[in-house]
Specification:
Layout lengths: L8 E5 L16 H18 L7 E11 L9 E10 L3 E12 L2 E16 L4 E2 L4 H11 L11
Antiparallel strand pairs: 1-3, 2-5, 3-4, 4-5, 5-6
């Protein structure tokens, strides 16, 4: 069962008219954009990723659609880092919509990200500062053995 327990970061996601498909709900491809918005705000506000030092590339994305999202829905994304390796890390998402003051889970997802040096054109270790920010913000909810005390 999917729950928001263990998520410490939440941000609102705007729904644009252009996000809606012919069936009146958010098009399935748009969810990756919603994840990107949530991930970018999380990295800016919480992790304070230094883009001038090291870039990030998405290696893999997963989406599980649970309930449709409609144009007038009020939606939020919960975001967390759930695994950190040497040069890669995973970010999990839950999209919720508010209905009668309560949050209903609509979608869950995951992206595997890789630290990347564009000058060298190769993967590099996740910078210690960002790794520590992820670890400190997410502990004890992260699953990686690296985080066990």
């Amino acid at each position: 069962m999917c729950t928001i327990e263990g998520y410490h970061y939440k941000t609102s996601i705007p729904i644009r008219f252009a996000d809606i498909d012919a069936f009146g709900h958010v098009n399935n491809a748009t969810y990756l954009t919603y994840f990107e918005i949530a991930r970018s705000v999380y990295w800016k506000e919480i992790i304070r990723w230094d883009w001038k030092q090291v870039g990030i590339i998405v290696r893999k994305s997963e989406i599980e659609y649970l309930k449709p999202i409609l144009l007038n829905d009020e939606i939020y994304a919960y975001v967390r880092t759930c695994r950190i390796g040497n040069s890669s890390f995973d970010v999990e998402y839950i999209l919720v919509k508010k209905i009668n003051g309560k949050e209903e889970i609509c979608t869950k997802g995951l992206t595997s990200c890789v630290a990347y040096d564009y000058n060298l054109n190769k993967t590099v270790p996740v910078p210690a500062y960002q790794k520590n920010k992820m670890r400190d913000f997410e502990t004890p909810s992260v699953r990686s053995p690296e985080f066990q005390v």
